[in-house]
Design a protein that fits this description.
148 residues, five-stranded antiparallel beta sheet, mainly beta, 9 strands, 2 helices
Amino acid sequence: MSQVQEGSFLTLHYRMTGPQGQVIIDTFGGKPATLSLGAGELSPAIEQHLMGLEEGVHTVIELDEGEAFGERQPEMVQWVARKLLNELGDPNEQYVAGDVVQFPTPDGLGSYAGAAVEVREDGAVLFDFNHPLAGRAVRFEVQLIGII
């Protein structure tokens, strides 16, 4: 039987739930996912837990607080001036707490997301650039259908 190893291509069903059991993503009951290990599609910690698992296995991986997506970093909660938001996007956009906004990386080749936490009267927005599950326990259920 095939085992998961570095660089494996996986066909799998998976369900990720947060600390209160809220479902983050769930492919069970639908089309299975196809992922390439090491391509950044899963967190490195989750990938480590998959290593050595055999094709056909159905298991649950419990990850401790901060293990799946790192610890929360207070310095990643930052105010962004309205002027900069206007330059990066639509100047007429009205931001509200809970909005998730994509920002370009400094090199312009990628992007990263920030969740709006608070909006000031001057239009500046407090964004949290931490992963939404940073510092939290995660439950990862997986059924490995195929390994190449």
